[in-house]
Amino acid sequence: MGNKYDAVIVGGGILGTFHAYHALEMGLKVCLVEKDAYAKGATTQNFGQVVPSGMNTKWQKFGRESLRIYKEIQSQFDISIRQNGTVYLASNEEEEQLLVELRAINSTNDYESKMLTQQECLQKYPGLRKDYVVSGLFFPQEVTVEPRTMIHKLQDYLVAQKGLDIKFDFPVVSCESNGEWVSVQNTKNEEVFGKKVIICNGADFKNLYPETFAASDLEVSKLQMMQTKPQENYNLRGSILTGWSIRRYEAFHECPSYARIKNNEPKESLQKKWGVHVLFKQAADGSIILGDSHQYADVGKIEDLGYDLDMDIDNFMIEEAKKIIDLPTYQIQKRWYGMYSQCKNNDVFQKTIDDNIHIVTGIGGKGMTGSAGFSKKNIATIFNKQKINL
Predict the structure, then answer these.
(1) Rounded distance, CA 213 to CA 356, Å?
(2) FAD dependent oxidoreductase domain: from which residue to which, for each copy (predicted)?
(3) Cut 0.90: pTM above it
(4) Is pLDDT at 388 greater than 80 in this prediction?
């Protein structure tokens, strides 16, 4: 009976780990299996911000629940959460208009935000250029995480305090229903059994149900990011999102002026070609994370995105960043890319197989912000518990 569980979660990223968390919170016996020696992929290769403010009204509910969950866990166990807030910086009157409209939407949603004057922005964020910023919109409740370490700390917490069973180096090659149980088998013919199996496979579409994924509307996004050398005697608090973020994030799509402002943009630019919006976040060691870009391919053509870093994209982001904030140094110590899956036409990809096998993937850029809240509702649905209102 040692290898039989109420729930087996396939995939140790942020989405799978929070499905395991909420299953444990229900008192279920849970096993999380991960194909690699430790969790990696998009969960550890992202920007490390939790920003419900950037989500549309539907997903902001999940994001705000995620904030509550993150802070509750952080109060018991250090998973690297820092509540420094998020600011959106407008560079012109159009972007400022979108900030005003977003603030009105969030006032209706009872989500705290504050408009900042140009002078308040300059005082709050050292090095911010006066010739860039017009005004800002600040969300004080939002947090940052250290993505390279957070998921490992979260899993340590779930093992030590919640009784989670994790099996690393467990690449799953088959899930087979057999009456009451689903057999989950790896490449070494080891198996565990679950009453329910939840597959959170990220951007891995070759091992399980490849035909299902090939017929889906899933695509993969490749994002380039950089990390400067530690900044001496410099403190930049929270997540800094700039004008191109205002023009990109889903939350702003709900603003009355959004469509008109987007129509005014140039049809062709390097920013559009590479999907760039400039973000800043200071890491725990004092360095600054810079990003990011977006390039897309269908799930069957992931290799088309390549495995190299495009220095033209990185150099473009650095030059644009220098127009926004004067950092003590723009010397880069690390460069990397992350790859996440998303749906072209849906919020997230979900498919149920044989009643007891549930695929959940394609959460896209909403993963770090939305997974904790979304997983709570999804686990309740899968296990037929009372509907949870967020």
Answers:
(1) 18
(2) 6-375
(3) yes
(4) no
